[in-house]
Amino acid sequence: MMRLTLPLATVLAIGAGLALPGLESASPGGSLAIAASLKPLAPEDAWNSEPIYATSPPGDRRVFVVERGTPEGMAAIRVFEDGALDPVPFLSIANISLEGERGLLSMAFAPDYATSGLLYVFYVAAGPDQLDPEGNEGDIRVVEYRRSGSDPDRADPGTARLVLTLPHSPGYHNGGWLGFGPDDLLYVAIGDDHDRDNAPSLASLSGKVLRIDPSDPDGAGPATLTVPDDNPFVSTPGARGEIYTRGLRNPWRASFAPGGGLTVADVGQNSVEEINYGDLAGRNMGWPDCEGRCETPFPEYTEPFYTYSHLDGCAVIGGYVIRDPDLSGLTGRYLYGDACRQDLRTLNLSAPGGDPAASGLEIEAFEGLRSFGEDSLGCAYVMTSLNAYRIAAGNAAPTGCPHDFPVADPPEPPPVPADSVPPGLTLTGKARRLGKRIPVFVECSEDCTVRAGGKLLVRRRARQKAFRLRLLPATGSGPAMVRKKLALRLKPRALRTARAAYRNGRKMRVSILATATDDVGNSASEKLGLRIRRHRSRPG
Fold it and tell me: Which domains does the chain have, with CATH numbers?
């Protein structure tokens, strides 16, 4: 049996200016054969509000960019064709709430859009209106529209039909993604309404990915949809049949990979961000019992495909597997980002541990990452707080997508030689009360040695002065892929100092770094940040 040895013998130098190694290599598979760049679709002043999503109808060269909305409660969908912006919006929608994370958040075209002209939008309403006279502020809506019969570059606002409405109180945890899957059914990602009990509940649509047929089977009017007979909970007593995946906190962006697997980026709370991938039908992703990976395995929960700690970001933003054949080095890899980082990152969804790597792409420091998009020609897009960009093969590439139909699925990234694959390392923990021991959990994918250490940061209330306390190492052993509980310890004197400071302080945080090395010298590192809960100090 494979063994995991964990002599956590090396403690990080404290206060010595030691640079901590990151989690990712410089670029996927080496340097990019063709330099990628972000090509702005339009000048910043061309937008009425911040771009938030981009997509295309099947088999259509146009790119449709969703704008979140203006303070007056108006939002629009704009059209680009061959890099040129149509000055007249494709569709304008009123009664949009912009509180917190609300707005017009995404759209999806029906698979048969060329003949049916049907499209769907996801937005948060500012209150009741003609579409829903009984509605309330904050309601999440999925609304159907039809293309104009006289102008293919316009939707007919008079055709609005309410497919789904869901009460939602806070201005955040809305979710906000729509997309048709390979089965031609509509998937809808919705946050937990800032009520963690909603996420696992089969009686609530919040904290879920839904799977529906949005068509109006009987012409009966608003809020009419069909629940597919093969949905995982359609026959479960007391369950909402629309539910496809549950146990999510705030799924901000999802997409389907070329092989049909669903990717869902779920924003964490205090410590961990996660990306889920695969056949997620009927799966419980674990929130609120687990943030990221569970400390103790629960057979009923599905572990994330990839996680990272809040030392590396704050809110994951899901993207797409890159299909553009011109983006050598990125093609076939999943591109994603984080709201607190300027750089974009990639994963190999077919590799254990995701083979995380940098993309070589960054947004400007004064812009905030908002979302990603993909068109039907295989080009990928990045939305920021100021503009929408196409990911182009160098600065000389055109603004419009240069490809033609049909779009072939990208090849999988080149296989990584077995002797050069770093061990998969997972480091987890929860916020703990201050004590002698700081428990963490380590899991390695193969025989490896893990070295770890950390620091305890205390911030005084009066002077706002931070000081660091040394954590002693811990050791342990066990089979590969078995989660091992370890305990970093505070020296007695450091513990007394920390307790004295904490009685008069405001915040305390633990920063831990672990590095796993396999038998041939490959290594991987993971960082973890934990907040210490405030409590009354007691002996021991």
Answer: 3-24+419-533 (2.60.40), 37-392 (2.120.10.30)
